[in-house]
Specification:
8 strands, AB_hydrolase_1, transmembrane helix, Mesoderm specific transcript
Length: about 325
């Protein structure tokens, strides 16, 4: 009996030592500083500007391109990344449009990431309207090119525009790409579902996400032949970690629930508008799978034209097939 008691005490002491070792290690791990900006990402940041929205600094990048054209293009990025998603087609776009503008939404990229904060698609649409006013473009007709999360922000902007809401943007055209605009054909990734529905556990989980965990998750939404390089994965992660953005991911992810709640408003805007519409679609997308997603889109949005890219292209078509993406967009924008 004494031997059993001694063994139990020794076991308890061993676990206590393990716990005492783990606590400082975990404390260090949870406060790992964000990675350094790569030269490419730092160049993107230093070439941009900031404006203020309700006390928060919002990053945007603007390029003045073609002389003799008055066309303005506004780029709206997806979750969980940033305006840097557009870097591969930035230069070609500036050769077609007089002004090309991209922003990092509140809580993303180089913009402020307040917490606690109730992030919403409605607020992000107001962020965009504030930027357009800040740039003196409120009277200008704006072309919008969006992706993923940005698609839903674009649909809220479209709703406001078509209903002549105060401060609205006048939308000249709208091109969407690989966004979960229909809740019934949208399949969020496992991590997204866990973070958005875990309540008080979510803040713990957001602290535990590291680069390896993130990169393993996001590689699944790229095609097998269109995978990002290690450096590109790091740029994505660095943009998330900037200003502790990993700690607000659970709050931002409530947009999935908002899409369901406001489906009638946003899908209704898409089906009733007279604005020229286009969809560029990477068909290997596991989040909005083929053919389910695109068949529903074509059924409900009959006025829209559609470009389905190469069968190997997945959820990030502007990064996976920038040439095909740009050419598809150019064909659309030159068609009216």
């Amino acid at each position: 009996i004494n031997e059993c008691g001694s063994a139990r005490r020794a076991s308890r002491e061993w676990w206590l030592h393990v716990a005492l070792l783990c606590v400082p290690l975990l404390a260090v791990y949870l406060h790992i500083p964000p990675p350094q900006l790569s030269p490419a990402l730092d160049s993107w940041r230093t070439s941009g500007h900031f404006f203020t929205f309700r006390g928060n600094h919002i990053f945007y990048k603007e390029s003045v391109g073609v002389v003799g054209s008055s066309d303005v293009l506004l780029l709206l990025h997806g979750f969980p990344t940033s305006s840097y998603d557009w870097y591969k087609i930035w230069d070609p776009l500036t050769q077609r449009f007089n002004r090309v503008i991209a922003l990092d939404f509140l809580g993303f990229g180089f913009s402020h990431k307040p917490r606690p904060h109730r992030y919403s698609i409605f607020e992000q649409a107001s962020v965009v309207e504030t930027l357009v006013a800040h740039l003196g473009l409120s009277e200008q007709r704006i072309n919008i090119l969006s992706h993923d999360y940005g698609d839903t922000v674009a649909l809220e902007l479209l709703y406001r525009s078509d209903h002549n809401r105060s401060g609205h943007i006048t939308i000249n055209s709208l091109c969407l790409s690989n966004g979960g605009i229909f809740p019934e054909t949208h399949y969020p990734r496992f991590l997204q579902k866990v973070l958005k529905d875990s309540g008080f556990i979510s803040p713990v989980l957001t602290r535990l996400i590291n680069f390896q965990f993130f990169s393993r998750g996001i590689k699944d939404v790229f095609g097998p032949y269109t995978q990002p390089t290690e450096a590109e994965f790091w740029d994505m992660w660095t943009g998330i970690r900037f200003n502790d953005g990993n700690l607000v991911m659970d709050s931002i992810l409530q947009y999935i629930n908002q899409r369901l709640k406001h489906r009638e408003r946003w899908v209704g805007a898409l089906t009733s508008t007279s604005t020229p519409l286009h969809m560029i679609y990477g068909p290997l997308d596991p989040v909005n799978p083929h053919p389910e997603f695109i068949q529903l889109y074509q059924k409900l949005v009959q006025r829209s034209t559609v470009s389905v890219l190469d069968e190997h292209v997945s959820h990030y078509p502007q990064l996976e097939d920038p040439t095909g993406f740009f050419n598809a967009y150019l064909s659309f924008i030159n068609s009216f």
